[in-house]
């Protein structure tokens, strides 16, 4: 890891300010005055003004979010947030991406801002798959406007996506839809654009990461392998 990134991750200062500290000779690595652009590892002793700094390990969780919780850390109206489902002793974790109040399913929470940015930035086109329950009967042909990109409320045209029917019933249709962007209430607006109402919206996958039988409202820590996978997306 680059020294300035290491220092910033330790909470010393911003990367730019950490570069200034390095230029001023206030940073040492293993007892030697550091230089710009140095790489450091887990076993290196890094000091600022003679005081050792250590890297805080990031925390990574997956939560099966129920309906009725906000995907935020707090709410000025006193509504329940996803942090109410997490243990009190977790670090300063933040939810990654949008999963609105009336939606449920897979939500990642982490202290790792860089991973959060990677997973949510539109240019990375990270695929997210949802189970959607629509009132009434639909056919595969009915999904074509959504697959090819459709103009939604506000005049925005969605990107092409994958969608297919997984269950039909006389009263409803269940669909899997995979999108690579995350506009506010995008899927609900996509179906509204073809005159359909969403009865259930559940995120079931981020990339190939799934809930794997995690009960509604339950959470677990992500494994190192899962974190590495998410960083590869």
From TrEMBL:
Keywords: Isomerase, RNA-binding
Gene Ontology MF: a single term: RNA binding
Family: Belongs to the pseudouridine synthase RsuA family.
Protein name, UniProt field: Pseudouridine synthase
Native organism: Candidatus Coproplasma avicola
Keyword Iron-sulfur: no
SMART domains (alphabetical): S4
GO biological-process terms attached to the record: enzyme-directed rRNA pseudouridine synthesis
Entry superkingdom: Bacteria
A single GO cellular-component term on record: cytosol
SUPFAM superfamilies from the UniProt entry: Alpha-L RNA-binding motif, Pseudouridine synthase
RNA-binding S4 domain location: 1-59
Xref: InterPro entries: PsdUridine_s_RsuA/RluB/E/F_cat, PsdUridine_synth_cat_dom_sf, PsdUridine_synth_RsuA/RluA, PsdUridine_synth_RsuA/RluB/E/F, PsdUridine_synth_RsuA/RluB_CS, RsuA_PseudoU_synthase, S4_RNA-bd, S4_RNA-bd_sf
Enzyme superclass (EC): isomerase
Enzyme Commission number: 5.4.99.-
Keyword RNA-binding part of the UniProt annotation: yes
